[in-house]
Specification:
Conserved hypothetical protein from pyrococcus furiosus pfu- 392566-001, ParB domain, 5-stranded mixed β-sheet, alpha/beta, 59% helix, 291 residues
Amino acid sequence: MTKLPKAFGRFIVSIPLDHLIPQTSISKETRTGVAFRQIAASVKEIGLIEPLVVFERSKTEFLILDGHIRVDILKGNGVKEAKCILAADDESYTYNRRVNSIPPIAQHLMLLEALRTGLSEERIAKSLNVDISVIRQKRDMLNGICPEVVEMLRDFKLNANIFSLMKKMKPLRQIEVSEHMIANSAFSLTFMQALLFGTKPEMLLVKPRLRDEKSSGEAATARFSEESDSLLKDLRGLEDSFGKDALTLTICQGYIERLLKNTRVLRYLERRHDRSLGALQLWLERRQLAG
């Protein structure tokens, strides 16, 4: 079996920042952004956790593939060198498209692990440049969520606020709504609110009061009215475009039919796209039978 080529070197090496060649410049808007300030606070408080990824052009030139913001922060802090991983090629797009953001549940588990190792909430908040209440909210995010749901949703990118709504449900209902979200690939807060609204009172940890039920019913009626208006607008739009679309479809069908009668086109399709040709011929037969 042929072995795949290695994408990175085996060791982490320290390289002077003066030898690193950027592929992009850090704008003023980027430096004033929230993400930049969080990374800067983390580097100042804890140091460089994740090595830079570079490609060696020569002994004194290394192309930066990942870590432009960190390099900019390190230079601003007066740092002279940084730990780097050597990549086997200089295709930064290939590398970056495989970098995924961490799902909320994974972030929660990493935070708990950091707290278990002795890091304080205050230091974590300072390193991320956020208020300590944000760290505590992430710490308690899964309190009241059944383990089955945690396992089901741990690898999905979802709105972390859905768990605050899910906590209002009993464990069995939590599992049901998780299955709904996965089946529909819908992990938004709006979808979760709809699932909560459709939950029977006996499946909630705290049953809604009569006043709440009345207000919920009025809200549902208002939403139904808005959705009806939206559907009517969409229907009118379809009615307006139907004639044009039907004419375009008729012209396209006639054009395809003429193409299939051209021997040169047929020979080309037989050589290059035999499956597509078979499907088109089947469509033509059905069209002729129907006509």
